[in-house]
């Protein structure tokens, strides 16, 4: 079957001769829904009266979300500008609306190309790669988000996984300095590629760490943060998912458009609390906000950092305030800021340190993606659900053991 975007009800009979059975929709939103409901669809045909901007927007969307699908565009008249704009957006071919023979040939070529893409996919495991996306967040600064992000990502990279760490604290990001790297490019360089971000574009802004980790740094100038739209961040994450095993996102202590884009594409939210009332209050508000946004509860993981600090507040008090169990408790240690100052993640530098043990437990039990069809020992211990979503375990089972 071919999906057809055309407002004219007679278009179905007009084009089915050339492309076979046709399922027609009349709006861009309906086309997106139809594509979601047809995971094995190979061909999309856009009618001649669909405006060029909408057609190109849909083609860009399909190129990211369903790169194997072929988009053919019909126009009343062809010119160089139309051809250039269409091909830049990912349209495979542009055909004049009255050339049904040309349309049939284009549909055949497109399906052959899709079959080759599908064959390559089968050779590499039968499904398109989709990374596990993990966002580390707290609505309060100074709780250790960047320390968690750099340690988790370098640990996963050191085990052989292909990992990308994106610094979404666009005004004051510290991923680069925390890992003692000198990035030549940053996420700001992707703004000019918006709508056309691909694997090569990502490689052009990546800085590599000694652990094998790929990083994309925040801009050097805080003022550049306002020039980066949330849609570019969303596109970056969706493309990166196809080329990495894990994508980790370090975030600012605020619900920016970039953070909201990260939430939308995340499989796991690591929400960090510390033993102080402002941090607990902000985390409670974060949970309420996520509820309002419709974020699934089973994607959230509460981690208590500096859990043994003697400050008059206990872990039990945090559980009572949040009405949610703590998954992992990470102890307090002066070795952590010392490792940050050296630019060496403690999880690699001192693997037997209690902080490293807790962070490694977090990575293995909750972040690491299990092999398809198999539940790991860590999953069985933590009680993960068959879908891979994290289920909660009580404070009495957690902490430092």
UniProtKB/TrEMBL annotation:
Disordered: annotated span: 368-401
SMART domains: AAA
Ranges of Polar residues composition bias in the record: 377-401
Domain AAA+ ATPase: 131-317
Name listed for the protein in its UniProt record: AAA+ ATPase domain-containing protein
Protein source organism: Pedococcus aerophilus
């Amino acid at each position: 079957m071919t999906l057809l975007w055309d407002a004219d009800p007679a278009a179905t009979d007009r084009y089915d001769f050339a492309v076979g059975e046709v399922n027609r929709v009349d709006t861009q939103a309906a086309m997106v829904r139809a594509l979601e409901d047809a995971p094995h669809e190979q061909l999309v045909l856009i009618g001649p009266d669909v405006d060029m901007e909408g057609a190109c927007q849909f083609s860009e969307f399909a190129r990211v979300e369903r790169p194997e699908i072929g988009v053919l565009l019909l126009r009343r008249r062809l010119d160089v500008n139309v051809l250039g704009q269409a091909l830049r957006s990912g349209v495979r071919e542009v055909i004049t609306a009255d050339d049904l023979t040309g349309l049939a040939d284009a549909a055949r070529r497109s399906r052959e190309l899709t079959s080759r893409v599908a064959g390559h996919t089968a050779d590499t495991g039968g499904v398109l790669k989709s990374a596990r996306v993990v966002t580390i967040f707290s609505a309060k600064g100074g709780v250790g988000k960047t320390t968690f992000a750099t340690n988790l990502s370098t640990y996963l990279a050191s085990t052989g996984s292909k990992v990308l760490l994106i610094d979404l604290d666009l005004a004051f990001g510290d991923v680069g300095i925390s890992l003692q790297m000198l990035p030549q490019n940053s996420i700001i360089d992707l703004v000019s590629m918006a709508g056309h971000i691909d694997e090569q574009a990502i490689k052009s802004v990546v800085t590599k760490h000694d652990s094998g980790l790929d990083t994309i740094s925040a801009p050097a100038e805080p003022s550049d943060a306002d020039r980066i739209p949330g849609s570019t961040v969303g596109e970056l994450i969706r493309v990166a998912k196809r080329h990495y095993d894990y994508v980790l996102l370090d975030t600012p202590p605020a619900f920016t458009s970039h953070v909201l884009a990260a939430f939308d594409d995340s499989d796991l939210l690591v929400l960090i609390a510390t033993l102080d009332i402002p941090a607990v209050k902000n985390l409670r508000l974060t949970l309420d906000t996520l509820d309002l946004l419709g974020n699934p509860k089973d994607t959230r993981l509460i981690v208590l950092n500096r859990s043994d600090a003697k400050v008059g507040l206990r872990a039990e008090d945090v559980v009572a305030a949040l009405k949610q169990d703590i998954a992992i408790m990470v102890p307090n240690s002066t070795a952590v800021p010392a490792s940050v100052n050296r630019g060496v993640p403690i999880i690699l530098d001192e693997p037997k340190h209690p902080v490293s043990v807790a962070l490694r437990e977090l990575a293995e039990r909750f972040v690491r993606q299990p092999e398809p069809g198999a539940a790991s020992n860590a999953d069985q211990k933590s009680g993960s659900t068959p879908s891979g979503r994290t289920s909660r375990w009580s404070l009495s089972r957690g902490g430092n053991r």
